[in-house]
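INFO  loader      accepted 1 record
INFO  loader      residues=207
INFO  predictor   begin
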Amino acid sequence: MHVFVSQKTLSPVRWHEAFPDSITVRSPQDIRDLAKGRGCVWLDFTSLTPADRQLWLAQCKVLKNPIIVLSNVPNDDEAIRVFSSGASGYCHVLAAVNQLREIALVVEHGGYWVGASFIEKVLQLSAHHFSHVPGHDEFPFADRLTEREMMVAHEVAHGATNREIASSLDITERTVKAHLASIFSKTGARDRIQLVLMLNQIESTVA
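INFO  predictor   done
INFO  writer      dumping C-alpha cells
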C-alpha cells in the first residue's frame, strides 16, 4: 500500500492513477493501516515549513517504510537534508504517473531515487574531500572496517565503479561486491550513494 501524506484538500488524481490502492492522509499521525516495513510513504513537502518537514520525516522514519519526498522546487540542499534524515527517494511533486511507479519500484527494492545531477555532485564532493586525505588513519568507520574494506570504501568515495575498484586493488569484481556487502552491513548504508553521504558526513550544503 502507498500512503501519500499531504496537507492538500484534494490529492492529485495522478497519485491514485499510479497506485489505485493508495490512500491520502493529512499528517503522519493519521497513518493507521500501513504495515511496518511494507509499502511506501510519500511526503508532500509543498506548503510545509522547514520545521514541519523535519518533523514529518522523523515521524515516518519510525515506521521502517521507504520514504519518498515530493518537492515543488527540488534542489541539492534539500535532497541532502532529506536523505540524511532517512528518505529513500526525492522527486518533483508533479512527477508523472509512470515516473511515480518507477520511483516506487526502485525504493521498494532497497535503492534510492534521486536526480542524476545530485549523484554527480555528491561524487564530485566526495572526490574533493578525500583527495586531501593521505591515509586511512582518520577514515570514517575505521574501527569497524578491515583494511581492505577501507580501501574499497575509499575508492567508492572517489566515485569508482566496481570494475575500476577491482582493477585498482587487483581483485575480482565478485570480491569487490563481497567487500561492499560487508561494508554496507557494518555501516548501515543501503547502497553506495548512502555510503558516500555517510563518509562525507554531509549536513546541509553541497560544496
